[in-house]
Amino acid sequence: MWNTSRIPLGKRSARSEAISPDTEIFELLFWGDGLRLLIGLLRISCFCGTVISEACWLLLLFAFGDEPVDLSIMNALTATNRNFKLAARLLGLDSKLEKSLLIPFREIKVECTIPKDDGSLASYVGFRVQHDNSRGPMKGGIRYHPEVDPDEVNALAQLMTWKTAVANIPYGGAKGGIGCSPGDLSVSELERLTRVFTQKIHDLIGANTDVPAPDMGTNPQTMAWILDEYSKFHGYSPAVVTGKPIDIGGSLGREAATGRGVLFGTEALLAEHGKSIAGQRFVIQGFGNVGSWAAQLISEQGGKIVAISDITGALKNSKGLDIPRLIKHSTEHRGIKGFDGGDYLDPEDLLAEDCDVLIPAALGGVIHRENANDIKAKFIIEAANHPTDPEADEILSKKGVTILPDIFANSGGVTVSYFEWVQNIQGFMWDEEKVNNELKTYMNKGFKAMKEMCKTHQCDLRMGAFTLGVNRVARATVLRGWEA
Ligand SMILES: NC(=O)C1=CN([C@@H]2O[C@H](COP(=O)(O)OP(=O)(O)OC[C@H]3O[C@@H](n4cnc5c(N)ncnc54)[C@H](OP(=O)(O)O)[C@@H]3O)[C@@H](O)[C@H]2O)C=CC1
Ligand SMILES: O=C(O)CCC(=O)C(=O)O
């Protein structure tokens, strides 16, 4: 068993101080990947022959460990693993513990076959990846989207583990998804699909095991169906899901929570730079739950939303878009297209639009090496999960752009999910003011703790958040008794 004194309690461990970075690289490459090192060196001598490329190859091997190096734009899992490994090395984590923290607890894949409204049968693949439960029940959303794939769900589950630890709430991490286009399914088809998915995973979720919530393409109604289906097997259990409708145990403030957390996180970051929301120009990608609430709350504080996009298109207005009117239009027309209060903008150009603060609030992987140089914002607030890949991180850092990382920036949603779960267990409903005040306290504490890690490890905010989350999970793992 590992001695807990070997796990750094918010500081660089004695082990990492005793071993120079060079020794760690040598140890990793020679003992962990000796063959790979040999092949790598041979390839370099044959094809490159320069000292610089040799160093680059070694660095890539170091960064990706035992994964094949893929020089195309990184997928979500490769990128997330890379960030985790960098954090593990900053913390000086034991290499076996590091490996064990990366491996998911359980990966579930199910076929969900449903009758469509026209009488035909359709089959969809559903996933639930349960990454880690050392700090408590696993927690994370369920996504309905055509691009849902096992690697992405895996990455998102892992991010949930670090996110709940950064937020310091007593959960582990999980994520689920079904590969489907929710917009192309009728309400009754969506209900059937959700119920079949729940039937297939009901034994593996639960208030003390794994607690799903909404993500892209799902909403409180989806959670209500899961609750109902789950309760047929296990008795009435409101705490099995969060993000429910208020009438059946949802929390006041949960719907706005991710957007409100984005507001609080942005306020904290801007304050550090002597700025406030008022007067800053914002560009937001995505106008669903997170994007629309972030836009509304930011504009209420005097922030100017100068451009916005959703799947139907993009709009700009240098004087600031009228957000309440845009929300009304989007609800009535199922998208922002056709809104008369802004000018047409090519969605491809949105991220490069001139602004102070850019908020990606839709899909992952949207900021990469091909477009990072075009970004004009000074601050990026990652409301979406993993919107920025590691190559873009590096480019943006050189440009002086400050990124508030996803595992802190969008943690308001899961934090209020925690408050919902607590209310369900207590059987007592909080008022909205209490929810919002508690959320602000958690976000401010998370920001302070992340900054402390930046100071300790001389790193950027992403590594500050990763070292904070990974360190807390590693401590819990070791405290519970981890056998090598
Ligand atoms: N909901 C939550 O509590 C949390 C969500 N997140 C993350 O925030 C992000 C958004 O989630 P959420 O708001 O819940 O999802 P929603 O499904 O409510 O909204 C997603 C929005 O993004 C739009 N969109 C989809 N593809 C594109 C595109 N290529 N360009 C521009 N817009 C696009 C969608 O348009 P359309 O609807 O027309 O397809 C929709 O407006 C995700 O990354 C999610 O993981 C993170 C933490 C918590
Ligand atoms: O509210 C939750 O439990 C999870 C939200 C989520 O999926 C996320 O933070 O990415």
Describe this entry's structure for a reader:
It catalyses: L-glutamate + NAD(+) + H2O = 2-oxoglutarate + NH4(+) + NADH + H(+); L-glutamate + NADP(+) + H2O = 2-oxoglutarate + NH4(+) + NADPH + H(+). GO terms for molecular function: glutamate dehydrogenase (NAD+) activity; nucleotide binding. This is Glutamate dehydrogenase. The termini are close together. The longest helix is centred in the C-terminal third of the chain and has 26 residues, at 432-457. The relative contact order is 0.12. The chain has helices at residues 14-18, 21-32, 34-47, 51-64, 76-91, 95-102, 150-167, 187-201, 220-234, 254-272, 289-300, 323-333, 390-398, 406-409, 412-426, 432-457, 461-479, and strands spanning 106-115, 121-132, 138-144, 173-178, 210-214, 281-285, 304-310, 313-316, 343-345, 357-360, 379-381, 402-404. A 7-stranded mixed β-sheet has the order 9-8-7-6-10-11-12, sandwiched between helices. Mean pLDDT is 88; it is low at 1-71. With 484 residues, it is of the alpha/beta class. The chain binds NADPH dihydro-nicotinamide-adenine-dinucleotide phosphate and 2-oxoglutaric acid (AKG).
Bound molecules: NADPH dihydro-nicotinamide-adenine-dinucleotide phosphate, 2-oxoglutaric acid
Q: Strand percentage, roughly?
A: 5-15%
Low-confidence stretches: 1-71
Helix content: 40-55%
User: Total strand count, please?
Assistant: 12
Mean pLDDT, to the nearest integer, reads 88
Give Rg in angstroms: 23 Å
Number of continuous helical runs: 17
Largest sheet: 7 strands, mixed
Based on Cα principal axes, name the global outline.
Answer: globular
Order the strands across the largest sheet as they lie in space.
9-8-7-6-10-11-12
Content-based structural category:
alpha/beta
Helix and strand succession?
A: HHHHHHEEEHEHEHHEHEEHEEEHEHHHH
Q: Give the distance, in angstroms, between the N- and C-terminal Cα atoms.
A: 6 Å
GO cellular component, one term: mitochondrion
Site (Important for catalysis): 215
Family: Belongs to the Glu/Leu/Phe/Val dehydrogenases family.
Binding site for substrate: 139, 163, 417
